Structure formats: structure tokens, C-alpha cells
Amino acid sequence: MSAEREVLTWELFGTASRALAQEIADSGYRPDLILSIARGGLFVAGALGYALDVKNLHVMNVEFYTGVDQRLDMPVMLPPVPNAVDLSGAKVLVADDVADTGATLKLVRDFCADHVADVRCAVVYEKPRSFVKCEYVWKHTDQWINFPWSTEPPVVRRENQVLDA
Questions:
Q1: Does some domain include residue 157?
Q2: Which of 15, 71, 99, 125 has the fewest CB atoms within 10 Å, i.e. is most exposed?
Q3: Cα–Cα distance measured from residue 69 to residue 78, given in angstroms and rounded to the nearest whole number
Q4: Which of 13, 81, 24, 14 is nearest to 54 (CA)?
């Protein structure tokens, strides 16, 4: 990983999410629902939901990162896990901020695969090392990314929480 950082501002996120939505629309894909990977994917899913006129948004909580370029051995789904019957037969767009290693996206995509009509992934950034190649990507980078929602430290720190980047 490069020592340089990719910096995404709120303004640039607006541009990125709109371009990502346009790429999805231009492909002809019309998702029935957007499945957000919390936490970074919440912002992406909300922006895509408005731009693609999809009101059916779901959230999957996955813990993987513990710090800057530090992660658990494998991603872990945290409760509440979406009920697979709610996804049954749907065209699902999985939204996240970054496909870094691809492990989180693979976990979520595999969770959906047996229940949905079609599952595709949309991310703001994709790194070359990601073994999941997303259908929709705004930008490719090999740098660590400073997202506007996670560059400032929390206002409060909760006990027994893994520290984020």
C-alpha cells in the first residue's frame, strides 16, 4: 500500500455517488433493493437509493477493520442479520465504500446468492488486490482512503469497542 492517501471530501462524494448511480442506470440494471454494508456503505446506499429511486434499503453490519490497514482474520456478520426471505427473488445491489481485499463483499454476496434473482456490487473505490471485482466502481486506487465520515475521531469513545481507522 502506498504511503499517500486518497482523499474523498463530502463534495467529491456527491460527485462520485452520482456518477456511480449513472453507471448503474446506464447498464440497465434496476435493483429491487439496495443492501448497505455498514458503516461506510450506509452513505453510498443512501445516495444510490435517492439517485436510482430505490426506497427499499437494507443494512448488513459487518466488522472487519480494526485500524488503518489492520483487520480481523475474517469479516464477521453482526446482528441483526437480514432475513433471507426478505431478499427472496430480488435484484439486489450491494453498496459499500471500498472493495479493499474483497472479503467483506464476498461474505455479503455469498449470503445473498442462494436467495436472490441477481446480486451485483457497487463501490466508490476498488483496490487492485480485491478478489471481488465489482460490477460498478467509481474509481480504482491502491492507496488508503480518507473518507469524510471517518477521518475525524469520534466525539465519544465507547468502552469495549474496536478502534476504527
A1: no
A2: 15
A3: 21
A4: 24
